[in-house]
Amino acid sequence: MATLILVRHGRSTANTSGVLAGRTPGIALDERGAAQAAALPGRLADVPLAAAVSSPLQRCRETLRPLLDARPDLPLHVEDRINECDYGDWSGRKLAELNDEPLMEVVQAHAAAAAFPGGESMRAMQNRAVEAVRDWNARIEAEHGEDAFYLMCSHGDIVKSLVADALGLHLDLFQRVHVDPCSVTVIRYTRLRPFLLRLGDTGDFAGFAPRERPGDGGTAEVGGGAGAP
């Protein structure tokens, strides 16, 4: 099946101000986030991409803009199911203030039981994101073949919940996963199981350049050590 390149959006003005942005409109990348986004095309230069899929929020679209400018033929699709978690009444509030809420302890230790007032549950967030990835895996493979790569730009909790699903981790453990702004996570999906190839990587991706398999006349593969999928 397809290989998914998961990008968390670059650092935003909400990240630097300590605010839980959620789906609040008008949250843009800050100066550091814009620089991170500008570096993304170079980091992924050797990775062939069949498509880019984005959360509808501004900070994700801004993160992908330099990549789309560098690859004008790369199609962009907006996917509502990888939108940020709907934090409901918590949206726009300071994280320091939210740390005193009893629900925050549940969010951190028992995420599967957490539901935000006026918003959605973390289970619902993960379920929709996993469903979106499964649908896009099938679509990309049908249109571009099982060796295809595609990119999704989304949000920290979405990326972490997708990693937990790929590793077979209960949602209660997803807070053990960390992904920095504009970090890249790579998951290769196969018929039987996913393989986590990179997690929260902020470096170079030249190792993902396709190369010939010995004796097969040029079929692309992903580089990796012993036991790599």
Low-confidence stretches: 216-229
Distance between the termini: 12 Å
Coarse shape: globular
Rounded Rg: 18 Å
The overall average pLDDT, rounded, is 91
How much beta, percentage-wise? Answer: 5-15%
What report would you give on this structure?
By secondary structure, this protein is α/β, with parallel strands linked by helices. 34% of the residues lie in helices and 14% in strands. It is built from 7 helices and 6 strands; from the N terminus they run E-H-H-E-H-E-H-H-H-E-H-E-E. It has helices at residues 13-17, 31-43, 58-70, 95-98, 102-109, 122-144, 156-167; strands spanning 3-8, 52-54, 76-78, 149-154, 184-189, 194-201. Strands 3-2-4-1-5-6 form a 6-stranded mixed beta sheet, with helices on both faces. Helix 3 links the parallel strand 2 (52-54) and strand 3. Helix 2 (31-43) packs parallel to helix 3. The radius of gyration is 18 Å and the shape is globular. It starts with a strand and ends in a 28-residue tail after the last strand. Mean pLDDT is 91; it is low at 216-229.
Topology (elements, then pairings):
Layout: E1 3-8, H1 13-17, H2 31-43, E2 52-54, H3 58-70, E3 76-78, H4 95-98, H5 102-109, H6 122-144, E4 149-154, H7 156-167, E5 184-189, E6 194-201
Parallel strand pairs: 1-4, 2-3, 2-4
Antiparallel strand pairs: 1-5, 5-6
Helix pairs in contact: 2-3, 6-7
